[in-house]
Design goal:
Blueprint lengths: L28 E5 L6 E7 L7 E6 L2 E2 L3 E2 L4 H9 L8 E5 L3 E6 L9 E6 L11 E8 L9 E3 L3 H7 L4 H11 L11 E5 L3 E7 L9 E4 L2 E2 L8 H9 L8 E4 L6 E5 L12 E3 L9 E8 L3 H8 L7 E4 L3 H4 L1 H12 L4 E6 L11 H7 L5 E5 L5 E2 L2 E2 L1 H14 L29 H10 L3 E5 L2 E5 L7 H23 L9 H20 L17 H10 L2 E5 L7 H5 L6 E5 L17
Parallel strand pairs: 1-11, 1-19, 19-20, 20-21
Antiparallel strand pairs: 2-7, 2-9, 3-4, 3-5, 3-8, 6-7, 10-11, 12-16, 12-18, 13-14, 13-17, 15-16, 22-23, 24-25, 26-27
Length: 582
Amino acid sequence: MATLPITNVINISVATSQTALNAYNTSNLALFTDDCPQDAVLSIGFSGTAASGSFTLAFGGNATSSIAYNATLATITADIIAVTGMTNVSVTGSIASGLVITQPGVLGPILTCTVTANSLQTAGSVAITVTPTVTNTGWSGGSAGYALYLSATQVGVDFGTNSKTAQMANAVFSQQPNILAGGGQLIVIPFAVNVQSLSFNATPTSGAYELTWNSLTTASITTLTAAAAQTALQALAGLSQVRVTGSMVSGGAFKVWFFGQYGVSALALGSTSNTLSPTTTITQATVATGESWGTAVTRTTSLVSYFGAMVNETCATIGSTDLLAAAAIIQALNVIGFAVSYTSGDLTVGSGMLALLQSGSFTQMRGLYYGDSTTVGGILGINALNMMASYASRGLSTNFSGSNTTQTLHLKPLTGVQPDPTITQTILNNAGIAGADTYISLQGVACIFCSGQNSFFDQVYNLQWFVGALQVAGFNYLAQSSTKIPQTEQGMDGLKSAYRQVCSQAVANQYLAPGTWTSSTTFGVQKDFTNNISQVGYYIYSSPIATQSTAARAARQAPLVQIAAKQAGAVHSSTVIVYVNA
């Protein structure tokens, strides 16, 4: 069922355009990942060694052809893959040792398997039992396209504890406070990765071949199965998470899933040293090109609600084009993005990726700099990724329903993160100019350092909450009335009361505070405007019902409501002059 935004009913605008606002939990954090989640695995066991007979399997109610006791693995695989819904599996083993059916976890569990016919017997005419057993249902998200987590433990189960995804999840939940304080969850969303096919015009029974990718060549592949091709490809640099499904039969194909590779890819698989017999031509085709961060955000904003978004890759992998495109998409949503770079050149004004976020006024894409590009556990820049995950979790931890709960990230510590060992005063100054936040040591005290050149994080975060909360309050007031809201001043008083509750909460959590209005823009009754700002921290005004146009009244529109809100701000530094008199 399609979910449409409540902007169809309530539209809120602020000094800078905020379009397509949705009601999110303000602590939900999305982690887009190219890591491969655990596979779904089904085992088929046999109680004895078959010498005669056959058996038939059904998956989701659709049956295979009859499978003979001495059928080759290629035949068995082809029979299973021919079943509707079983196209993307690989099969290993044999009837003698047991069969193992594997499917990439992002596709969800393997269809329910039953044995619909079985005449297998041993050489001594003893009936053989065939038993399907689900070994693994795949990752927690199944085929939904995302999974929700309240701890790092299940993320480790789903992706492996050494994966970037699991390590970043551990950083998220290690912070005090973290996203749980605001009632949030970690939402892991796999990218749609690049998928290619290798089709065959014959069924080879012997010979060998090699596969090529990105100027790399596999070892000779002599076992003619998807599993063997997968093992060979995984030995190539950058392809350790690749998955291969399908069968090598005439008219069949392997499907290669490039997990672990970010973004849209133009790198094509190839084959060489082909000695397959009978002679077999291997033909490559692209099934799916993969997706960029921005494309993934566009695809998922109506799929699941999140307020923060990050990727398990640094800027070096994402690249300037994708980063800026994602920033533009996120800027138009009620979402805050996080991007980290370990390259000091990304701070260069006019060309560096982080500097371009600042010059492009992409305030909702938070640029972070952490210069440690160390490879740990085979992962380049994992320390930078963990710094980003920690920053995002600490930043999104505000419970806006509380009292005095809004926060600034400046000078706050991050649990489990070491200060950037590469930082210098020059780099810190450049990061400040670029509007990139850093994690440094100030005379031995580890802390986040913010310049505010691309706005401070809390300014962006608090405003996003405020606008979204106003929209939800207005919608709920209109939608929850058991009768109707009269198009009168009394009706408008009720609507403004709903907005006033949000403003009062903003004062309670100290996003807003009484103060002096310094903008030249004012409205309503000037005395009321000034008094409310100085005494309460906000002012709400609606144009009189009597001044409405006939068209607006006929359309049942409320008169324009204007809200002036005074931000409480925050103290980040202090200058002191001391006068000493002897």
